[in-house]
Amino acid sequence: xxxxxxxxxxLTPYVPGRSIESVYQDTGIEAIKLASNESLWGPSPKAIDAxxxxxxxxxxYPEAHLSExxxxxxxxxxxxxxxxxxxxxxxxxxxxxxLTFAGPGxxxxxxxxxxxxYRHGTLLTGxxxxxxxxxxxxxxDLQEALAHVSAKTRIIFLCSPNNPTGGILHQDEWNAFLAHxxxxxxxxxxxxxxxxxxDPHYAQLREDILAGRPVIMVRTLSKIYALAALRIGxxxxxxxxxxxxxxxxxxxxxxRVAYMAAQGALTDQKYVAKVRQxxxxxxxxMADQFSxxxxxxxxxxxxxxxxxxxxxxxxxxxxxxxxxYVTRPATSFGxxxxxxxxxxxxxxxxxxxxxxxxxxxx
Length: 362
Fold this sequence. Notes:
By secondary structure, this protein is an alpha/beta fold. It is built from 13 helices and 13 strands.
């Protein structure tokens, strides 16, 4: 029987949050999903209108070079369109980076607990995974990353805000870290939750990219822009890195509906600002509610919070699901007693905490 290459033998499938469809099929309950860090505010009306118009052209291949989207992203990020590449979600870009710049005999450093795509991409390339811990604030430990750099290191993946903890890298520690990273090592920072950060000391990568340092920032339109179903993410890096990624990427990896919806979403920054403001307020409400109940959590700068239940999180998730709220036990992250909950509009959170209290009383 044909076997996959050896590096894939320890690879396990990605474990997503439970979908509302599967919950309904299993239980008959029309639940509210708080499991996958999606936006319960939904996309901009401009994005929806643009997506509907794209349906009139489903017989045509999408654009291979997403020039309009690249220009909009360039304006928002302070870079040029030549610095940018889009892909079928940030996941595709993270995998593409690993496949383009690493292979057997190389090492790739990434934190844990964190997003599983880094380990997945590492094993796909045949490179050796090198795992580092988080710091006390729930962000990747940059000193540990430096301590694990070797002559074989090709890529360092970092996540800021980190999923599932919500911790961020700060500018001063980032600058000190980057000054000691060898120029042969590519540093990739996953900023999927960038728009939810309010801390003025949050590490920014724009100047490093413009200076030509081996840095890639990866973002998505799945979170604050609420286009998760359409799968569109983007990355920015110095020109030679982007040119390599564009060469390797599939030509039509971003579909026409996603491309048009992205244009609509990116032009409606007034709506984005509203969602950001309400999300941050709801996050503070959630933190206060968990604190009042005596639960500890990492200070989150994202649109989710992960709390320590001191109990079996899978059990809690099952009971909350039966009350109409789908949450994410952090077992797959190696945190079997932690539960991750998406930030939602406050009226939804009030209903969630009523259900949460009923589970506590059992």
